[in-house]
Amino acid sequence: MAEDKNENTEEKIITAANDVFEKKGYDGAKMQEIADKAGINKALLHYYFRSKDKLFEMIFGLAFRKLVGELEFLFDTGIPVKEKVRIFVDRHTDFISRNRHLPLFIINEVNRRPEIFVKLLEGIYGKEDRLNKLLKQIEEETKAGILKQFDPRQIFLNMIAMNIFPFAAKPLVKGILRMDEDDFGGFIAERKKIVTEIIIKSISEK
Amino acid sequence: MAEDKNENTEEKIITAANDVFEKKGYDGAKMQEIADKAGINKALLHYYFRSKDKLFEMIFGLAFRKLVGELEFLFDTGIPVKEKVRIFVDRHTDFISRNRHLPLFIINEVNRRPEIFVKLLEGIYGKEDRLNKLLKQIEEETKAGILKQFDPRQIFLNMIAMNIFPFAAKPLVKGILRMDEDDFGGFIAERKKIVTEIIIKSISEK
DNA sequence: TTTCGGTTTAACCAAACGGTTAAACTCTTT
DNA sequence: AAAGAGTTTAACCGTTTGGTTAAACCGAAA
Fold this sequence. Notes:
2 copies of one chain form a homodimer.
Chain A: H1 9-28, H2 31-38, H3 42-48, H4 52-69, H5 81-98, H6 102-112, H7 118-125, H8 128-143, H9 152-168, H10 170-176, H11 181-203
Chain A binds a DNA duplex (30 and 30 nucleotides) through residues 9, 30-32, 40-44, 46-47, 50-52.
């Protein structure tokens, strides 16, 4: 795996480390396995990233920003809220399906060391006014009778919970509902519509 | 911790192992820590449960049955479906709040070794006709115009996803939404109503 | 009191782990 | 072609980990 001599070693390491950390978590990940997957040996791994912790910190940061980056789109106040929901559920579901282990990885590692992401959080809150603009947009659409009064935090949680959960618990879901890979794919496709509908209904007047 | 000489050693081990495995997962859990928490030494731990795997298998089985046991109530066909939802969301949320690490533990370990729970699943499917009775109940209430047509699997997933997610991702949620412990408690209390309402609305006619 | 099975312990073991070292290789610069 | 910095490797190190061993302890049955 990974043969090109010219390819950047650092990139190969990051790719491999990403794979292993996401799938197995900090405790389950072994430096030797990362080195093997990157096609190098352990010493070179330590040459590029001094320690497992340092390497992990880098990977976690990338993963966290990747996940948060997908939310960026919600702050575009040019799009009506309901339209945002429609597009977001679709895109977010696809994103998670392509990065199946990402959400659980973040959740697990933050559970393990809650301090881990406070610095990364500052990066988000730098652009605090975007959040305020979004809240204002919702407020306006509520006044206009398009939306009903609701707690955006709760609705947001509902949306990402319904999106993430089936993928996070995929083997569990497949096992209990006795699905094969195709069944699961169809189930998710159908799910997009249902989740979209539910969220929109839960923020619509009447 | 744990001083009573008379107390059953095996119980102390199970309690300690449960704590450690649930919080840290298989890879993060160390036999030494379990022994310490049980107030015994490592050799005695291996005397009772020959290996880490054996001990883990036992703990996982208990945890899985505990989680599944909470669903039992849904199969009581004496209660109308909507009433079931109301009661279930309330009870299930309380249960998870008391067992914060349980769902994530199950999800993680099943992801790690998907075969792990196939045998446990057989225990569930022994009582397959109960599921059929539940489906029949839903069908009847649909014919009676109480419920609309829906895929029970999707709605079930939505319900437990919305219940579990805030607890599984608790430190993440608290961090991003900047809550302290009290805030979070209030948020969850409010959540019960919202989730109940959303689920009921998504299965109600019109 | 002796004996005997279950219980508990300290000491030990081999493998796996994260990390280091020192030497060798490679490629560019002069 | 020599120097030099960056790159790569095999061998090694100390610690932690899951697991074992053999001996001591203890309470009940004989």
